[in-house]
Amino acid sequence: MLMGNCLLLFLWCLLDKSFVSPLHSSSQSRMGKEQHRNLMAHRKHGMMGVHRVKRGWVWNQFFVLEEYMGSDPQYVGKLHSDLDKGDSMVKYTLSGEGVGSIFTIEPSTGDIHALRSLDREEKPYYTLRAQAVDVLTGRPLEPESEFIIKVQDINDNEPRFLEGPYSATVPEMSPVGTYVTQITATDADDPTYGNSARIVYSILHGQPYFSVDPKTGIIRVALPNMDREVKEMYQVVIQAKDMGGQLGGLAGTTTINITLRDVNDNPPRFSKSIFHLRVPESSPVGSSVGRVKAHDLDSGKNAEVEYSIVPGDGGSMFDIYSNKNTQEGTVILKKHLDYETRKAYTFKVEASNAALDHRFLHLGPFKDTATVKVNVLDVEEPPVFSRLSYSMETYEDTPVGIIVGAVTAEDLDVGNSPVRYSVEWRKDSENCFDIDPVEGTLSVSEALDRERNTEHNVTVVATKVNNPLLSSKVTVTIKVLDVNEFPPELAFVYETFVCENAKVGQVIQIISATDRDMPAVEHRFYFKSPSQTRNRNFTIRDYGNNTAGVVTRRVGFRRLEQSMYLVPVVVEDGGYPIRSSTGTVSVRVCTCDTDGSLFSCNAEAVFFPMGLSTGALMAILLCIVILLVMVVLYMGLRKHKKKDTLMSSKEDIRDNVIHYDDEGGGEEDTQAFDIGTLRNPKGIKETAQLQKIRSEDEPNQASVCMPNEDSEDIRAYIHHCLLENSTPPYDSLVTYAYEGEGSVAASLSSIESWVLEPKEEYRNLCDWGPRFKTLAGIFKEHECKDTEKTENEAHTEALNDRLD
Q1: Are 245 and 200 in contact (CB under 8 A)?
Q2: Which residues neighbour 571 within 8 Å (Cβ) at sequence distance 6 or greater?
Q3: Which SMART domains match (predicted)?
Q4: Distance between CA atoms of 165 and 158, rounded to whole angstroms?
Q5: 429: confidence class by pLDDT, cuts 50, 70, 90
């Protein structure tokens, strides 16, 4: 092979003799070489001119074998230039990858050698640069040329499975040719050179169960009806060989672990045909009796077994539960057992697969049956009552000691022990009954009252004499029957109405009744009118359904004659003895429309027979009110006019009213306020002036008010006037209205009239007694003011005269 490679290299060099670098264009290389040849010719021959020079050798790559094992450096190739005449005037240089460490060149000859062994899988080629220079001048004779030294591949790497070992699964009972998995091997050798990387697959171990495709590495089932239950795991060894599987090629192997996946191709099977179980008769409902198991050779869901009891005589007492974890069937108790009634039970249990595969139904039914025999074990039990519960009745007036009823219990065991009875005492309920410990008869021990407790629940305990620890209980319900004690009564206080235009037989009210007694059956009430009285207006009609109606017996009612009727009603019950009571229904007479609808039951209904409407009645009432107001005003005006007549005289001194803000000093107090000041705001200043004048004239008042000889006659006259009934007393309070400052007429009160008649004498008032002392002072103040005013006018006139 080495000789063949060298021959190919030699032929290639003969065909291509140009000494041009692959990285330069041919035109540039040609021009450089021609110039170089001309220069060399001129140097050697001493002649000028242009001569055609022969081209040098051209190369682009060399080959070197990998994994060279010789002792001498491996010869790679030779560099040579046409300018080299063999006179040792040309020197060859080499640069690039691995120069000096891997590759070396003989400067004078251009021979290239590899100093060590190379591996193509580490580096497939090297790029180097070569140049020919003049030995004397050191100038390059040709441009630098680049070339490649390629490491030639040899078959030194075997195929390898990078992901092995492999695992795969395939369903059991699969047909021939079923795909299992695919494996792939890789070869590091050059796939483009020779057959070093061409791989062929073969099976070394695993036949005749599986096969492999030589080119693709696909593994398939080669044997039909492989059963997982016979063998589940298979180990297959696959070989991958290069060189196309030829002799001398390198090979690699891997292992594939193939598992057969389970399918439901096996039915469940019981290990035995009969299962014997035992259970005590005292076992509670729901307790476990025993277990049965059917085996299924499949796995996973295909091995899940469901158990059921085949309908039959003994299967009604039991049930079966399927345990998916253990694949067992647990027989549980469905009803209570009684050894004395039945000592053994036999039934069949069926086991079947939950998930079926239709491809294998032809193999037979996927279920199995077995017989289960259950023996009941005898257990000593407490006494058993003849009933689960007892119900009794008695009247509430039953005397103490009377038997109400009896309970019965017996021992069903073989020993048949005697039984004793007792009543379970409870704090939260009344214990009104006793029991005979031997006979089991219940009797009344306390007085009963149905209205307080209608039902009694008594717990009776039965105990075995041979074994007192064994006892049982039963509930006895005793209903207290009612004795008719209370009379029935009307359900409500009935108040209804009847129209004035009512007709005979008209129902005006439906009534019902209640009764505090509680009979065993529903109440039955009877209604009627009292027999001792005859009602011509109303009667009672019993409807027979515990209701009755109040019915009219005549036509027309008049509210003016009678507005209210009281209808007696007799109510009887259906108890024994019969109880009755009398109630009353109130019936008002009202006015209704023509269709019988209620219009009014008020007082205005009296006017309806006269044909007056509500609006007319309101108008009449309004007129009456207006008349009353006018009468009141008229009487008030007359009274006021009479008072004005009494007080109209100017000589009447009672037109001044003295008002005191405090208790005062009685009749001797003269420091009072003029009522005119209180009524007229303009009188405030005048009142102040009068008080000032009064204080100045106090020394003169003594002389003014001295009694004279006529005082006795005046006192007698005043006393006579006070005794008259027609004349009001002088100390009466008379109120005068003040017109106000804005009035044109000014005040109308006589209190404002301060000017006295010239002929009036006020000094004689002091002779009338202490009551007129204050009045005399007031007149004196007015006289002083008039005098002062006259003097001022006279003084003014005098001044005017002087000025004139």
Answers
A1: yes
A2: 487, 488, 489, 490, 513, 525, 526, 527, 580, 581, 582, 583
A3: CA (SM00112)
A4: 17
A5: low
